[in-house]
C-alpha cells in the first residue's frame, strides 16, 4: 500500500510540466518500474527503510562530521528557538567578476532547515551583475524580486527558452535541474531572495564547469565547437588551466 503510493509520487513528480523534461528520463524510469509490474518491489522497501533510518528530522549538528546521509542531528534537549532563526542574510560583496553575490541560508549556515526540504538565499546584483547560466541538479528555485529589475530565464531540456524581465514584486520559478540565469537589467542595484526545494541545493555554473578547471582545452574545443582562442581567453578570465 505505502510502496505503491511512493511509486506513484515518484512517477508523477512533474505531472504539470512533462514537456520541460526530455522523454528519455521518463522512459528510463518507466521501464524500471514496468519491469516490476504490481509485485511488491523489494528494492523500494529496502530503500525506504534506509531513508527512514538515515534521514535526519531535526536540527543539523554542524560540529559532528558529515556522514553519507548528511549531517547528524543535534540532541533534542539542546535544540532552542534560535536553531530555527537565522539573522545572516546580509548584503553580499558584489566586487567580483560577475558583480553578484549569493548569501545562503542552507543547512551549513542555518542548521534548522536540515531535513525539511527547504532553504533560502539572498541575491545581490550590482549594476551589470549576472548569475551566469547554472543548474541546481536536486532543487527547484523560486525568486522574488525585492528591488530593481532582473532579466531571468531558464532553458528546458528540449531547448525551449522561458525568459522574462522581472519587476519589483515579481516572482518566477525555475524547475529542478534546468539551466537558468539572472541578470540585473536596471541602472540601480537589484535585490532578490531565492528559495529552494532542498536544504542544501547544489549548484553547477556552466561557465566555471567549462572554463574554470583543468579540463584540457582540446577536449573543450571538441565538445563545444569553440575555437582555441576563445577557449584560452575564457580560461584566462575564469581561472582555468590546460
Ligand atoms: C569586497 O571584495 C573585494 C574584492 O575581493 C575586496 O577588495 C573588498 O575589500 C570587499 N569589501 C568588503 C566590504 O568586504
From TrEMBL:
SUPFAM superfamilies: RmlC-like cupins. It is found in: Secreted, Extracellular space, Apoplast. Its main location: secreted. GO terms for molecular function: manganese ion binding. Mn(2+) binds at residues 134, 136, 141, 180. It comes from the Eukaryota. Residues 87-232 form the Cupin type-1 domain. The chain crosses the membrane at residues 42-62. Pfam families: Cupin_1. InterPro entries: Cupin_1 (IPR006045), Germin (IPR001929), Germin_Mn-BS (IPR019780), RmlC-like_jellyroll (IPR014710), RmlC_Cupin_sf (IPR011051). Oxalate binds at residues 136, 141. Keywords: Apoplast, Disulfide bond, Glycoprotein, Manganese, Membrane, Metal-binding, Secreted, Signal, Transmembrane, Transmembrane helix. One of its GO terms (cellular component) is apoplast. Belongs to the germin family. This is Germin-like protein. It comes from Gossypium tomentosum.
